């Protein structure tokens, strides 16, 4: 609580509110745990200031990664387990996308989104079969 309180104080004094990504949860070996979005949410609610996320799904980060890899959207695929960050990041950057169902997004959740991945795989292993 003290860290959240300090963050609110700094933001109200003019500090920039920056987060890595808006993911509310993330998968671990022990199950789903809170992620960055869950930690920034109380600060946003208390201050009324929305964080600027520098990581996925920010297209600037994706384009920077493509440049760093010396790659292009035509020959790069975004693979992820989240429709709301991984897949949308790929789509907004013009990449083919593969949703892997071993993480956060489940098959029954996909229809809730107005966009769709290029492909859906049950596991990372299934991607190998696509090659």
From TrEMBL:
Pfam families: Hydrolase_like
GO molecular function: phosphatase activity
Gene3D superfamilies (alphabetical): HAD superfamily/HAD-like
One Gene Ontology cellular component: cytoplasm
Protein name: Uncharacterized protein
Species of the source: marine sediment metagenome
């Amino acid at each position: 609580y003290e860290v959240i309180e300090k963050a609110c104080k700094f933001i109200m004094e003019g500090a920039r509110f920056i987060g890595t990504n808006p993911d509310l949860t993330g998968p671990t070996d022990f199950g789903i745990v809170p992620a960055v979005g869950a930690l920034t949410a109380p600060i946003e609610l208390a201050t009324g200031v929305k964080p600027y996320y520098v990581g996925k799904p920010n297209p600037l980060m994706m384009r920077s990664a493509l440049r760093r890899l010396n790659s292009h959207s035509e020959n790069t695929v975004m693979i992820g387990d989240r429709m709301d960050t991984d897949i949308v990041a790929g789509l907004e950057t013009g990449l083919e996308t593969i949703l892997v169902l071993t993480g956060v997004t489940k098959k029954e959740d996909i229809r809730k989104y107005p966009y769709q991945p290029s492909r859906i795989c049950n596991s990372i292993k299934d991607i190998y079969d696509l090659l």
